[in-house]
């Protein structure tokens, strides 16, 4: 059993109903425990907690939360020997689902007690690492408004998406996708390291965490008919075959937008800007799943 530090985001997910310390003790033992549990006190705190845990010699630092918590813990672990573990407790759990981490609690902890160690690629957009997906356009716009919605969960997410669909307009961009140039309108330009946004919404079903490449999904416009095709394609995992989106596979990209455009990192809205540099760090993160 690897020496494990659990980093728990008490605000993640629709609700917290579990006695996490008791459950962890059941799986990791109470006699001479080989683990610690540390709680985040504010957004961003998990980065420092993870860095500290790695410096203290924990072999696994496990994020208990959703993709935002996973992103913070992962960032703290970059350049260290410690591996990222995940106990999925978020709303979407995109990276956990991609890595086939059990979503039910006892099973997730049981798996983490004897994990397999490997490495995964890490994406970077304008200096911000991402592990699952980053994107420009409507997905970022929804993240921005979801964060202000006052409640979380899938139903709030769908409500915000439908409401904002009526307001959102595409922005013209120039995208240099590792030498291939697209001058186009951008409704969504997603950079996928993992296959899905979370909740099994597959934006890039063929994305591979270990191929040294990002799957790029471009949607230039989203009239109603196409929106239905895209939604269905994401749910069924066959968006590339539906021809409702264009796909590219690149290790880096550079995007210039005519007007400031919103971007997100692993589902968290980070702001609006006109210049984007996207890169990939191959196999830069150890994972324990
Ligand atoms: N103690 C805290 N108080 C307030 N916010 C916190 C705290 N700890 C972490 N956060 C923030 O909570 C946000 C949401 O967490 P997280 O993304 O893990 O859950 P989620 O949004 O429910 O799941 P998912 O991203 O999978 O949909 C993160 O962006 C993180 O920065």
UniProtKB/TrEMBL annotation:
One of its GO terms (cellular component) is plasma membrane. Gene3D superfamilies: 2.60.200.40, Probable inorganic polyphosphate/atp-NAD kinase, domain 1 (3.40.50.10330). Pfam families: DAGK_cat, YegS_C. Residues 1-129 form the DAGKc domain. GO terms for biological process: phospholipid biosynthetic process. One of its GO terms (molecular function) is ATP binding. PROSITE patterns: DAGK (PS50146). Coiled coil: none annotated. Its cofactor is Mg(2+). PANTHER family: LIPID KINASE YEGS, SPHINGOSINE KINASE. This is DAGKc domain-containing protein. It comes from Hymenobacter lapidarius.
């Amino acid at each position: 059993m690897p020496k494990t530090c659990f980093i728990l985001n008490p605000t993640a997910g629709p609700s917290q109903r579990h006695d996490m310390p008791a459950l962890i003790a059941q799986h990791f033992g109470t006699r001479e425990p080989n683990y610690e549990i540390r709680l985040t006190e504010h957004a961003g705190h998990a980065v420092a907690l993870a860095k500290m845990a790695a410096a203290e010699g924990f072999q696994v630092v496990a994020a208990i939360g959703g993709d935002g918590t996973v992103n913070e813990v992962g960032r703290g672990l970059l350049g260290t020997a410690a591996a990222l573990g995940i106990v999925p407790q978020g709303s979407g759990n995109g990276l956990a689902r991609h890595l086939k981490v059990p979503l039910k609690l006892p099973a997730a902890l049981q798996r983490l007690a004897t994990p397999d160690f490997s490495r995964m690629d890490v994406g970077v957009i304008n200096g911000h690492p991402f592990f699952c997906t980053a994107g420009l356009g409507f997905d970022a716009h929804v993240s921005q408004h979801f964060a202000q919605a006052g409640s979380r969960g899938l139903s709030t997410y769908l409500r915000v998406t439908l409401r904002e669909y009526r307001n959102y307009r595409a922005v013209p961009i120039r995208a240099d996708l590792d030498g291939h140039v697209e001058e186009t309108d951008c409704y969504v330009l997603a950079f996928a390291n993992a296959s899905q946004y979370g909740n099994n919404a597959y934006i890039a079903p063929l994305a591979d965490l270990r191929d040294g490449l990002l799957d790029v999904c471009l949607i230039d416009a989203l009239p109603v008919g196409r929106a239905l095709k895209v939604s269905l394609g994401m749910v069924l995992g066959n968006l590339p075959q539906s021809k409702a989106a264009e796909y590219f596979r690149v290790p880096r990209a550079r995007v210039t937008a005519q007007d400031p455009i919103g971007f997100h990192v692993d589902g968290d809205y980070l702001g609006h800007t006109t210049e984007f540099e996207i890169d990939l760090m191959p196999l830069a993160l150890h994972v324990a799943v």
